[in-house]
Write a structure and sequence with these properties.
Strand order of the largest sheet: 3-2-1-4-5-6-7
Helix content: 40-55%
Strand content: 5-15%
Largest sheet: 7 strands, mixed
Mean pLDDT: 95
Order of helices and strands: EHEHEHEHEHEHEHHHHHHHHHHHHHH
Oligomer: single chain
Shape: globular
Radius of gyration: 25 Å
Low-confidence stretches: none
């Protein structure tokens, strides 16, 4: 029987997805440009399965039914174009190439157009869930031609994670690079979530003096409530882990330098271009950049003064405030991400449905959380909702946590502990709820030094003042 899917790139994600596909009874062929990797896969993780290993592109094409469906799992960037060039001479019109990596959506736009001109279909599919998700069921965000989606839908639905209601966590996102755009926003929200959690940990650890095992218990209890999510769950597990060699909490032995692959920075840049404010994600990206200045920070810690991070007062009150701050900030972070989907989707003509996005993020992906059920409900009630903070349930959830949110930030600032993402979340909320911001002064300054003009509250028109006449 001809294979229904080919997987090119048998690294961690590619090999896991190939096993997932085969495990659902779908015949699959595996190919890597490095023959040693193909052999190691077939003789190792794929041993005992029906996965077919091939060593040349011609044999891959011969093993696949028409139209050929080929999932490319290689690092984003030049590697994707190299694989496409490697396979293209062996393709026939109507064949489908799927990029399952973290490619920039603009690159996917280009590849869609170039391959369409040659008669091929190209799909940019965001895949989230890591190695375990790839093997057991990821969240999949495909974009590209609808004809390609129709040819892939049954396979993607079979291998995707399933939410509690049994729905597969995959849906068509839109044309061209829409799928990779949604994945970029997913990763930006992921950056924000991780930084918000790290800040809560930092304040409870350095400020309140709680030990890692004590904070692990806090996070485990939070995961039983409104903060239930994959990231909170694994945070509790991480904090509870003891190093077998030293007997110390393992987390305290890890160097405080957070790396990044670039998707968070892409979101920040794209948001600026689209005019979509995402201060929580921006703060998270900048926090990773600051963490990379480890050598400088060590020197600065010996010379720059500040308050001592201790004396938080009522521990129980601070723990409760941290919970409220994390949940309120999480809602504002999602609000920023979903607003960016709407704004930029209109700009690029993707027509992305935020409700469908929330639906497929409920399981399999890194940012899966109980909050997504409320987000799904919000968009079901109001498909044109411009900001999640305007949904009645989410609005009240944030409002009821304001006192704790502000107490947490004020306490952290008073102790000299940076909470950039949590502070940015509150600043976003406060700015969004303010009818009149000080931008009137900013615009007056622009008009003063650059004659950029301004509008008035009391009458229509565009105005410019010769400011120097009256100074």
């Amino acid at each position: 029987m001809d294979c229904r899917m080919g997987v090119v790139g048998l690294g961690v994600m590619g090999s896991s997805l190939a096993r997932n596909i085969e495990g659902k009874g779908i015949p699959v062929a595996g190919y890597d440009l490095d023959p040693a990797k193909t052999r190691a896969f077939i003789e190792g993780p794929a041993r005992g399965t029906a996965i077919v290993g091939v060593d040349r592109p011609e044999r891959l094409m011969a093993a696949l039914e028409r139209p050929r469906r080929i999932l490319i799992m290689v690092p984003a960037g030049h590697a994707v174009d190299s694989v496409i060039a490697h396979l293209r001479p062996h393709l026939q019109p109507g064949d489908i190439l799927i990029d399952g990596g973290n490619s920039l959506f603009r690159h996917t736009d280009r590849r869609c157009d170039e391959l369409a001109a040659a008669g091929f279909l190209f799909v940019g599919a965001g895949v989230s869930g890591g190695e375990e998700g790839a093997l057991r069921g990821p969240s999949i965000m495909p974009g590209g031609p609808r004809d390609a989606w129709r040819a892939l839908a049954d396979i993607f639905r079979a291998i995707a994670a399933r939410a509690d209601d049994g729905e597969p966590c995959v849906e068509y996102m839109g044309p061209r690079g829409a799928g990779h755009y949604v994945k970029m926003v997913h990763n930006g929200i992921e950056y924000g979530d991780m930084q918000l959690i790290a800040e809560a940990y930092d304040v409870l650890h350095r400020g309140a003096g709680l030990t890692a095992p004590e904070i692990a218990e806090v996070f485990a209890s939070w995961n039983d409530g409104e903060l239930q999510s994959y990231l909170v769950e694994i945070t509790a597990r991480i904090l509870a882990r003891v190093d077998e060699h030293t007997g110390q909490p393992l987390v305290e032995l890890i160097v405080d330098e957070a790396q990044q692959k670039g998707t968070g920075k892409w979101m920040s840049k794209t948001a600026v271009d689209a005019g979509a404010p995402v201060p929580t994600i921006n703060a998270a990206v900048e926090a990773r950049m600051l963490s990379a200045l480890k050598t400088e920070r060590v020197v600065a810690s010996e010379t720059l003064g500040g308050p001592s991070p201790s004396g938080a007062g009522d521990r129980a009150r601070l723990v409760a405030a941290a919970r409220q701050a994390l949940y309120a900030s999480k809602i504002t972070s999602y609000a920023q991400g979903m607003s960016m989907l709407r704004i930029a989707s209109e700009e690029f003509g993707y027509g992305i449905d935020p409700g469908s996005v929330a639906k497929i993020w409920r399981a399999g992906c890194i940012i899966r959380a109980s909050l997504l059920g409320d987000i799904m409900r919000a968009f079901a009630l109001a498909p044109a909702l411009v900001n999640l903070l305007l949904d009645e349930v989410l609005r009240d959830a944030v409002a009821s946590r304001q006192d704790g949110w502000r107490h947490f930030i004020q306490t952290a600032i008073g102790m000299g502990i940076p909470v950039a993402a949590t502070s940015a979340s509150l600043a976003y909320y406060d700015a969004y709820r303010t009818a009149r911001l000080p931008a009137n002064l900013t615009q007056a300054q622009r008009d003063y030094f650059g004659a950029h003009t301004y509008h008035r509250l009391d009458r229509a028109g565009v105005f410019h003042t010769k400011w120097t006449r009256h100074t």
